[in-house]
Write a structure and sequence with these properties.
- By secondary structure, the chain is an alpha/beta fold.
- The protein is built from 11 helices and 13 strands.
- The protein has a 7-stranded mixed sheet with strand order 2-1-3-4-5-6-7, sandwiched between helices.
- Helix 3 links the parallel strand 3 and strand 4.
- Helix 8 runs parallel beside helix 9.
- The protein is globular, with a radius of gyration of 21 Å.
């Protein structure tokens, strides 16, 4: 049986990695001969000893390793990938995630032990890549959204279009791929994309528009998570309240089904109102990320960040009245 190993290293908090759960759920649903492959997920704290990580990887005897890469773990992942290739030269090492999407050619040029870099949204791309390597299906030159090493040098294929309908991605929660541990923070996406084009942020560069998971799917996921009485629910949308009506609907679902779970969201303060703040309070939103980058007009212009000082102050007062923690 062929073995696919998905790995991430996290710097703090929960070891639950939604990106890896999506990859596994997508593979299980759409890949050819799903019964002929074994897909495992390993997550490690960032400062875990290298020897321990390597031993667990070697024990799995993988054919393909997919690393989920962010700014906080890329150096460690490159170090691990080099050591893996030295001892397991036949293993295909694939890197994906926001930290590698912007510089695939440079990474492959500087790190000879890497095989492929997946750029942007990874579910469909990684599935095609696994089929190519494990079942010799398709031509790697036709797989959109990758850069890879070839005898002729480094090849960059055409970009992968966004997945038009997010609901084609199976829910790791509904499908039972994700293990819901009540003692941890559980991540959930209800949308992908961002309308803001802040120069310092990479997120919007990977998505041309905001796409939403269907509300009935989101409601099912919320009920599954909340009925487990998890410690914390983290809605990962970059601006949770960009669609104020949708945000309020989601909060009402949470309130109706919530018993002990705290809520963690990222939002824009200028888009709050009294009703939304009240719903956040009732939904036990005790950790809100607002991310004010600067109040300096010149700086804001340089980073392409909009900021309404008067509206921001007005809505922060609403949060303060409810004693909702934000940063």
């Amino acid at each position: 049986m062929k073995k696919v190993l998905l790995i991430s290293l996290y710097p703090w908090g929960s070891s639950n990695q939604l990106a890896l759960w999506y990859l596994k759920a997508y593979l299980l649903k759409y890949i050819q001969k799903p019964s002929s492959i074994n897909i495992s997920i390993l997550t490690f704290p960032l400062f875990q000893e290298t020897e321990i990580i390597l031993k667990k990887i070697y024990y799995q005897k993988p054919d393909i390793i997919g690393f989920s890469c962010y700014v906080w773990n890329i150096e460690t992942i490159l170090k691990l990938s080099n050591l893996i290739k030295k001892s397991m030269p036949r293993v295909r090492v694939v890197l994906g995630g926001p930290e590698v999407s912007a510089q695939p050619k440079e990474l492959l040029k500087d790190n000879k032990f890497l095989d492929v870099v997946v750029k942007g949204e990874g579910e469909e791309t990684f599935k095609e890549l696994v089929e190519h390597y494990l079942f010799r299906d398709g031509d790697i030159r036709c797989i959109k959204g990758i850069s890879y090493r070839s005898k002729g040098g480094i090849i960059e294929n055409n970009p992968r279009p966004e997945i038009k309908c997010l609901d084609t991605i199976p829910s790791p929660y509904i499908e039972g791929v994700a293990k819901i541990n009540a003692d941890t923070e559980i991540p959930l996406e209800t949308s992908r994309g961002c309308i803001y084009k802040c120069h310092y942020c990479y997120y919007h560069k990977g998505f041309n528009s905001i796409r939403y998971f269907a509300m009935d799917r989101v409601e099912k996921e919320l009920k599954l998570i909340l009925h487990k009485r998890v410690k914390c629910l983290y809605i990962m949308d970059p601006t949770f309240n960009i669609d104020k009506g949708r945000a309020k609907h989601i909060l009402r679902i949470i309130i109706k089904n919530n018993i002990n779970t705290h809520l963690h969201v990222e939002l824009k303060a200028e888009l709050l109102d009294k009703d939304l703040v009240g719903l956040l309070y009732k939904a036990k939103a005790n950790f809100i990320e607002i991310g004010i980058q600067s109040t300096n007009k010149k700086t804001l212009k340089l980073i392409n960040r909009d900021f309404n000082r008067a509206l921001f102050k007005k809505n922060i007062v609403l949060l303060n009245k409810k004693k909702i923690y934000y940063q």
